[in-house]
Amino acid sequence: MLEERFPAVEVVALDENAGFGAAVNAGLETVRHPWVLSLNNDIRVEPDFLGPLLEATKEDALFAAVPRILLPKFGGRVESVMDGEFKDGFIEAVQPGLAIRGPSFPEPREVLFTVGGASLFHTERLRTLGGFDPVYYPFYWEDIDLGYRAWRRGWTVRYVPASIVHHRHRGTIGGRYSAGEVRRAMLKTQLLFHWKNLHDPVLLRQHLHGILLRLLDEDVRGERAFLEALHLALADFEKILLTRAEEAKHDGAVPLKSEP
């Protein structure tokens, strides 16, 4: 359809589904402009959404900008105000906009990361980070990884509320994967993120303790999702070791809340 109706569009067609990160990276290879927009097929944009994002690029250290992403299925709540909190040995994404019905957070602000499905990235900085890490297959935590690593390099990530888009949440994933598969994938990629990016010995000890607590809690409840996710993550542990040493070289401040 794109080739027929929009001949000016350069189509990059993959032979198989390699996951979100690998697909975006394939497109990134063709980019010839200083800024690149990542936009999923379950996003509907307002006609003037791009202008405010481009205005934000005047900030010298900017790595990425994310619009105000509204969730129609959830009363128009804001998805894209992304904070992070280290608690019980794990970094968790905190989305305060989900607690408020309707559009909220009208002021620009720094965020931990941008939603990969609707974000404007500095092309060369995104390439410096290697794009989205395909180790987070099939989905989730690849955008948190990018934001976290960008902050470690002294770059910034901005929420731009004047830019508005609408997200049909899990419009693609929900139709292809069961709820159990989605949960295991999220737990697996969360583990991989920590093994790649946690370098402080105190935080690492807390993380290992957190893994043990989750396993014990799951055993008490007669569940297996975290155990299965841990097994899947360990299969990719060697891949993580290849990038872990590089990430340890950077020590920029990350806007992350920690438990007392």
Name its key features.
seven-stranded mixed sheet; alpha+beta; three-stranded mixed sheet; 260 residues; 10 helices
Characterise the protein shown here.
The chain has helices at 2-5, 20-28, 50-56, 123-128, 142-152, 173-176, 179-197, 201-220, 225-234, 237-247, and strands at 35-39, 43-45, 62-71, 77-78, 83-87, 90-94, 109-110, 118-122, 156-167, 257-258. It is an alpha+beta fold and 260 residues long. The protein has one domain: Alpha-Beta Complex (Spore Coat Polysaccharide Biosynthesis Protein SpsA, Chain A). Strands 1, 2, 3, 4, 7, 8 and 9 form a 7-stranded mixed beta sheet that branches. Strands 6-5-10 form a 3-stranded mixed beta sheet. β3 and β4 form a beta hairpin. α7 crosses α9 and α7 (179-197) packs across α10. It is globular and about 55 Å long. The model has no long low-confidence stretch (mean pLDDT 93).
